[in-house]
Amino acid sequence: MSAAPEGLDAFTDLLDYPLYVVTAATATERAGCLVGFASQCSIEPPRFAVWLSRANRTYRVARGADHLAVHLLPRRHALAELFGGQTGDEVDKFAQADWSPGPRGTVLLQDVPAWFVGRVLDRFDGGDHLGFLLEPVAAGRGTGAAPLTFQQASDIEAGHPA
């Protein structure tokens, strides 16, 4: 495994991007986690990529899911703390969050600025994270406007450290 180049932290420490909760569901399981590595990656056709840590339960459930739901988070920390500071290996996060069944068998969180459901087109290796290339098939706008960003949530300790 190659190490990051010296000084890369000087670049990455300045990044400030939206945080997301990605939820995954199969016929028998559901999971969700806080995600910082995600981005729109094509305009036409529309595509979005999310990267899930191989260390967490959501990754394991998402490997068997055909669709994932991607949620922008409100600036309040509650959802970020729940989905980023707890591990689904130990707690049922959905027992503590308002959610509803979504399109294509997904799980949608309530009280978020926006969400979309994407069909998994491909999965690819990204090192300690696995990338999921998504084709959006449904979307919605919720409450609030400005999403929570990485810098605003830097005080949350990971429930499942990498």
Automatic annotation (TrEMBL):
Residues 15-157 form the Flavin reductase like domain. It holds the Pfam family Flavin_Reduct. One of its GO terms (molecular function) is FMN binding. SMART domains: Flavin_Reduct. InterPro entries: Flavin_Rdtase-like_dom, NADH-dep_flavin_reductase, Split_barrel_FMN-bd. Keywords: Oxidoreductase. SUPFAM superfamilies: FMN-binding split barrel. PANTHER family: FLAVIN REDUCTASE (PTHR30466), POSSIBLE OXIDOREDUCTASE (PTHR30466:SF15). This is Flavin oxidoreductase. It comes from Streptomyces tateyamensis.
